[in-house]
Amino acid sequence: MLLRMSTLFLRTLREDPADAEVPSHKLLVRGGFVRRAAPGVYTWLPLGKLVLDNIADLVREEMNGIGGQEVLLPALLPREYYEASNRWTEYGDTVFRLQDRKGADYMLGPTHEELFTLLVKGEFTSYKDFPVVLYQIQEKFRDEARPRAGILRGREFHMKDAYSFDIDDAGLQRSYDLHRGAYVRIFDRLGLKYVIVSAMSGSMGGSASEEFLAETEYGEDTFVRSTGSDYAANVEAVRTPAPPHLPVEGLPEAVVHHTPDTPTIQTLVDFLNGAALGREFTAADTLKNVLVKTRRPGEAAWEILGIGLPGDREVDMKRLEAAVYPAEVALLDEADFAAHPYLVKGYVGPNALLANKLRYLVDPRIVEGTVWTTGADQHDHHVVDLVCGRDFTPDGTIEAAEVREGDPSPDGTGTLYTARGIEIGHIFQLGRKFTDTFGLDALGPDGKPKRVTMGSYGIGVSRLVAAVVEQSHDDKGIVWPRSVAPADVHVVGTGKGEQIEVAVRLAEELAAQGVRVLVDDRKGVSPGVKFTDSELLGIPTTVVVGKKLAEGLVELRDRAGGGHSEIALDATVATVAALVKDA
Amino acid sequence: MLLRMSTLFLRTLREDPADAEVPSHKLLVRGGFVRRAAPGVYTWLPLGKLVLDNIADLVREEMNGIGGQEVLLPALLPREYYEASNRWTEYGDTVFRLQDRKGADYMLGPTHEELFTLLVKGEFTSYKDFPVVLYQIQEKFRDEARPRAGILRGREFHMKDAYSFDIDDAGLQRSYDLHRGAYVRIFDRLGLKYVIVSAMSGSMGGSASEEFLAETEYGEDTFVRSTGSDYAANVEAVRTPAPPHLPVEGLPEAVVHHTPDTPTIQTLVDFLNGAALGREFTAADTLKNVLVKTRRPGEAAWEILGIGLPGDREVDMKRLEAAVYPAEVALLDEADFAAHPYLVKGYVGPNALLANKLRYLVDPRIVEGTVWTTGADQHDHHVVDLVCGRDFTPDGTIEAAEVREGDPSPDGTGTLYTARGIEIGHIFQLGRKFTDTFGLDALGPDGKPKRVTMGSYGIGVSRLVAAVVEQSHDDKGIVWPRSVAPADVHVVGTGKGEQIEVAVRLAEELAAQGVRVLVDDRKGVSPGVKFTDSELLGIPTTVVVGKKLAEGLVELRDRAGGGHSEIALDATVATVAALVKDA
């Protein structure tokens, strides 16, 4: 491959684009890799297309390596299949919807579980046919509310999505592990720094699920890590360690106090500490009861849910949403309180909820034998020394409280701290959610139908272009890893005709050796501009054919390490070809 | 590449799909290359994806060969750019439209002239930057009224679209010629039988334009060819040769006759021949005047158009539409006749039209000195011996009359006959239609802006898969040309374990030589089924490891030629590798 800058469809920019905030967005636009076409919608210019293709090929290679078979599904997805899985409704505003000329509804595919399930159902019928792994590399569409950061979060983007089909759970685990291994190899080959975090599966349903997050300060995914171990997890997936149960014997009786004008935790704590009750109260001693309502998909009625958590913690809505998924969550309105007059705003306690058969779930820290100050279910009253397991018994636990830096790590080693990353891959054990919907069975060896179980595995191919740049750049430009660079070598001819002629000859000889070459053969462009462009474009190796040509020397530059060295012109092709081959 | 049928995601079908009418549709579904996902929307299964990729790579190679640079534009196209070119309106029902969550309008890209023009305008500014050829291979969307014939006419399909930008007409001609040459090489390498026909450019506007049509009886494009030359053209593009003008001197006076109850050509001819006028009349002696109305884009008012043509010919609506494009055409209704009482239904002549300043265009055969019988603009009256150029002078000519088998070829050699084909490529000299819309200028050497001129060039990549099958199949299945076949060799192991083991070993050895291999390693499948599948799938070369294995022999089969031969097992890898390499 030989690209000539004299004719290449490329104009680099000296200024950052006005709408760009993150390095990858700035550099990919300035380097002429992408151009914005509409909000969250980008055009790939020649160099950008090469990078995108390199990443896609690398992904393809590893997917083929685990026996994945490449197919290609349409972007236009008929409504009926998504009605069956209820995702036509669940997706809400996040997908693009359209009608054809006959009024039939379609969505533009954001992910393809439904069609893959139907595809396999159409072809495979026997347990002997399984396992099978199918994948595609395809443009996807999501109507993001706030497309941002260039190609990091676009509305039209490239994904590799794979789906595994197995006849039993052990098979699914094997398929899952194969994908996990392939993903590790892919991200390692891309030279990325990443963590694998436990994840909730969001709208995908299902059980085991991990995310691959490329670590970067501009990532929009927050995750937590342990100071003392490899533990890393999405905030939604953090499981709060429950303290040991305590004996309830000998604990003082619960007593209701008149606590005028104390509807908030702070006013309550201040009142109690001013009331000379013989001990000091903190927010952590109080039991805050947050009321929400939830509604399961397809149902009309909302159900009230009381959530009890220590008074020094807030409810994290994303954790709450993940905990109740696939039900949706809303706050109570005045009508709800009017319909349930025993719920006294600001003074709700466990017992009014439990006595009225409303669902009451508590933070895992609230275990038997813990002692709480909480609402007494009447205005201006709280109860002190209410004991869990003695005075009230919750319906269960829920992971809805915020996770804080310094919280103990769920694996028992170290404490948690927060980091940011870009989601580059996601693997799910979907289980039978979609195969149940569409009745995908395989005839077992005993002649009986067996429900197939399924995994789904995504990689953000276009997002990876940005993730690589986020992790691999300096103040001068991009530093492409060789595995994805648009070329191996950038031959820069500076100055007058002869140097450019030699640069072109070198480039042609290198290309003949199978090296992918970009040659700067532009005339009338200063060496300074050429070097600036070269650093911005970030090709791993640069060969400068400049003033020393008269002495038979060219300069070799290493973009990543910054090293320079002079080598004999005659030795250049062999040296560079060997360097590329060994890399 | 080594594909194993024991694990391949492939189930062939013995029956034609119920909705399939054309061979390519039947065979691509039966062979497990594609599956229908929605009307006109298809999924590509592993073997189909390989064929599609092979064709795309071949197209890519030839496009790169003429200096084309590959980019990738989005499918989501914002309305504003298409408003500017008026195509937001012109496309009518033929595109998919949608709104994002903010209510902004988009269409799914059917073709990308607007965005390419803007893209080039954003980067290139000087005459030194040109010419440039950009292309993409991408999924396109069109909301066909009647999607049909499988992937031949789908609603989501793959196209290569290229755009050339030049600073002058000579440059555009060079870019056009380069594309024409590349297209010839592409279709030749695909082994297609095709013709290049002059074409009207339809909604693309512009001037010079040719279509590449793959000849097949199931093609939906009709074109005409000459019996005596290479002339071929779309019916819309046929230019009727005009006869020489004749002297008007000495021709008899025009006479109005009472011709009661003769509103049609046939009743008129019958009446005249019964009226003892001293000569025999035929339909070809009469001048039929057809009234339509046209409306230019963006205008509210319709304009009446009279079309004069020999009475033995009908108006061909597609030719008429192409002739008046971009105006639209409609028939007159009662209100139009009421508003123009001098237009006497069934008896319209040239003179009422011309006297009332209505536009009157005639078939090119109606030249000065030709003598006609036509309507006299009063009920039950016709005029005989009305002479063109003496008694009426039309406003010009129009190509609206039907083209018939036996018409003289426009190039003067032979006569025309009708054939059918599939449009596989289309090249246009667009000129400045889009560069005018978006003001794409290049600064000339004189420092003055020069309007850039543009070409656009399409190849239906997914349609080519079907076109190849249409031309290359027999009653047993597909016969893939090696250039696009999903594999070079199909190794079929029949019978018991040992034959399959040897087949797999052969396949692995061939794959190690760089041969693309599909091996039938299925156990418990009869040789008959395997042979039937092999013929259906249509891999160019088959190696059968069967009963003769005991004698150290395997069988070599040529799918296209049908030849069989036995060769020594030991020589198989070398023989087949050489055969593939030489092809």
TrEMBL record, chains A, B:
<dbReference type="GO" id="GO:0005829">
    <property type="term" value="C:cytosol"/>
</dbReference>
<dbReference type="GO" id="GO:0002161">
    <property type="term" value="F:aminoacyl-tRNA deacylase activity"/>
</dbReference>
<comment type="function">
    <text>Catalyzes the attachment of proline to tRNA(Pro) in a two-step reaction: proline is first activated by ATP to form Pro-AMP and then transferred to the acceptor end of tRNA(Pro). As ProRS can inadvertently accommodate and process non-cognate amino acids such as alanine and cysteine, to avoid such errors it has two additional distinct editing activities against alanine. One activity is designated as 'pretransfer' editing and involves the tRNA(Pro)-independent hydrolysis of activated Ala-AMP.</text>
</comment>
<dbReference type="GO" id="GO:0004827">
    <property type="term" value="F:proline-tRNA ligase activity"/>
</dbReference>
<keyword id="KW-0963">Cytoplasm</keyword>
<dbReference type="Pfam" id="PF03129">
    <property type="entry name" value="HGTP_anticodon"/>
</dbReference>
<keyword id="KW-0067">ATP-binding</keyword>
<comment type="similarity">
    <text>Belongs to the class-II aminoacyl-tRNA synthetase family. ProS type 1 subfamily.</text>
</comment>
<dbReference type="InterPro" id="IPR006195">
    <property type="entry name" value="aa-tRNA-synth_II"/>
</dbReference>
<dbReference type="Pfam" id="PF04073">
    <property type="entry name" value="tRNA_edit"/>
</dbReference>
<dbReference type="InterPro" id="IPR007214">
    <property type="entry name" value="YbaK/aa-tRNA-synth-assoc-dom"/>
</dbReference>
<dbReference type="InterPro" id="IPR002314">
    <property type="entry name" value="aa-tRNA-synt_IIb"/>
</dbReference>
<dbReference type="InterPro" id="IPR036621">
    <property type="entry name" value="Anticodon-bd_dom_sf"/>
</dbReference>
<dbReference type="InterPro" id="IPR044140">
    <property type="entry name" value="ProRS_anticodon_short"/>
</dbReference>
<dbReference type="InterPro" id="IPR045864">
    <property type="entry name" value="aa-tRNA-synth_II/BPL/LPL"/>
</dbReference>
<keyword id="KW-0648">Protein biosynthesis</keyword>
<dbReference type="InterPro" id="IPR004154">
    <property type="entry name" value="Anticodon-bd"/>
</dbReference>
<feature type="domain" description="Aminoacyl-transfer RNA synthetases class-II family profile">
    <location>
        <begin position="35"/>
        <end position="481"/>
    </location>
</feature>
<keyword id="KW-0547">Nucleotide-binding</keyword>
<dbReference type="InterPro" id="IPR036754">
    <property type="entry name" value="YbaK/aa-tRNA-synt-asso_dom_sf"/>
</dbReference>
<protein>
    <recommendedName>
        <fullName>Proline--tRNA ligase</fullName>
        <ecNumber>6.1.1.15</ecNumber>
    </recommendedName>
</protein>
<dbReference type="GO" id="GO:0005524">
    <property type="term" value="F:ATP binding"/>
</dbReference>
<dbReference type="InterPro" id="IPR023717">
    <property type="entry name" value="Pro-tRNA-Synthase_IIa_type1"/>
</dbReference>
<dbReference type="GO" id="GO:0006433">
    <property type="term" value="P:prolyl-tRNA aminoacylation"/>
</dbReference>
<dbReference type="InterPro" id="IPR050062">
    <property type="entry name" value="Pro-tRNA_synthetase"/>
</dbReference>
<dbReference type="Pfam" id="PF00587">
    <property type="entry name" value="tRNA-synt_2b"/>
</dbReference>
<keyword id="KW-0436">Ligase</keyword>
<comment type="subunit">
    <text>Homodimer.</text>
</comment>
<keyword id="KW-0030">Aminoacyl-tRNA synthetase</keyword>
<dbReference type="InterPro" id="IPR004500">
    <property type="entry name" value="Pro-tRNA-synth_IIa_bac-type"/>
</dbReference>
<dbReference type="InterPro" id="IPR002316">
    <property type="entry name" value="Pro-tRNA-ligase_IIa"/>
</dbReference>
<dbReference type="InterPro" id="IPR033730">
    <property type="entry name" value="ProRS_core_prok"/>
</dbReference>
